[in-house]
Amino acid sequence: MGVVAYAGIPLLTDDGHALGTCCVLDFKKRKWTEDEVEILVELTKAVMTEITLKSTTVRLEKETAAKDELISIAAHELKTPMTSMKAFAQIVQQKLMKKGEYEAVEDLKKIDQQINKVNKLITHLFDNSKKENDSSTSQKISTSINTIIHEVIEEFQSSGIKQTIKLHAAADYLVIADKERIVQVVNNLISNAIKYAPDAKKIDIQIESENTYVKVGITDYGLGIDQSQKNKIFERFYRIKETPLKKVAGMGLGLYISSNIIYNHKGTIGVESEKGNGSTFFFTLPLAGKIS
Ligand code: ADP
User: Fold this and answer.
1) Is the CA virtual torsion 150, 256, 263, 66 positive or negative?
2) 139-290 under CATH 3.30.565.10, yes or no
3) Which residues line ligand 1 (CB under 6 A)?
4) What's the rounded Cα separation, in Å, for the pair 27 and 233?
5) Index of the ligand 1 atom closest to the CA of residue 252
6) What's the predicted TM-score (pTM) here?
7) Which of 31, 38, 95, 138 shows the smallest number of beta carbons within 10 Å?
8) What's the average pLDDT block by block, 10 residues per block, for the chain (292 residues)?
């Protein structure tokens, strides 16, 4: 090839495996200076760092995908027996009711509530797998955000919570959305408003339009959130450790999942809060129409 001068530094992995060389060539006779060799050594190190980083990223991505797949399968497998447990608990409840065994009915209700909790955890785990958050799998149709929120409120109120949830809306707003997913976001935000404000008597929900968006704000009158934690709480598995409340159940996934859903709808999510003075969690969605 007409090469006359050559200098090469081996590309060595940490365990001493040579991947090749990083080399320079010249077509005339020359002596490589100490500086040139030093530059070549540094360049080789930089190339090796880049190669190591790339392979680590690929390995981590594969591991995460495998973990997501495993979680997704496990959650799916758990859902089926939980559904029949719930159905049987309800059948037994009805039988006991007919026999007038009210104390046993109350005990079964507690079992039923615990089943609901496990179901919620399974749903969270399932939703946490990336595949489930993929926007390509969601079914978006034109729907009234007011109706969605109204239905979720009804469900909470009939479950016997002590807070009164009030809805304030100036108009009926239409959005293009995957209804089930938005129900899930509203469910998560209201559940948190109850969990982290156990002594409060009310929760206010405001729906309003802001330019080309509809904005939903869920206000509770509870713990509030310190400025330094406002962004972190949307991270996967993040929970605030310093809390005056003891043993609030959760996995730090609700807000992470909610934010993914909202981003998949091209909206935004956030919180306005002051520690000790309650919080307003809000999300926005592109507005598709408005009925005043
Ligand atoms: P989880 O409630 O399961 O821990 P989330 O992702 O829903 O998970 O919330 C993350 C954390 O953010 C919670 O652990 C809690 O510390 C804080 N948080 C969420 N909602 C509220 C709220 N309405 N008021 C105060 N803190 C909240």
Assistant:
1) negative
2) yes
3) 188, 192-193, 196, 220, 222-223, 225, 233, 238-240, 250-256, 279
4) 61
5) 8
6) 0.69
7) 31
8) 93 91 94 94 94 92 86 81 87 92 92 87 75 62 95 88 94 93 93 93 96 96 94 92 79 89 95 94 95 79
